[in-house]
Amino acid sequence: MWTIERVRALGVTTSLATTASVLGISRSQAYRLAATDQFPIPLIRAGSRIIVPVAALLHLLQPDPAATGGGRLETDAKVSVDAMTPPPADSTRHRWRHHMEHPGDDE
To answer: What are 59-69's pLDDT values in tens digits?
Structure first.
């Protein structure tokens, strides 16, 4: 069970897999969202590693800075990660796959 105190104890940064666990989504879903630049937290890419700032994770979980406590994270809270939500207008989408034209595509 993740609590605000346990999330704070992660340190300054954490892995995408740990963040997925905190948010209650699968690792594969987290990596899909990260690959399409739709993850709800700004990510740091260092080579092939994806690093998540814990401060941004805490802000997503507890947007009110006056909120305190180390209680359980509520499962019915308004925090939601939706793969179908379009990215912000100012985001840049990176295409990792090369799109090639195939014979017969223009028919």
So the answer is: 998 877 565 55
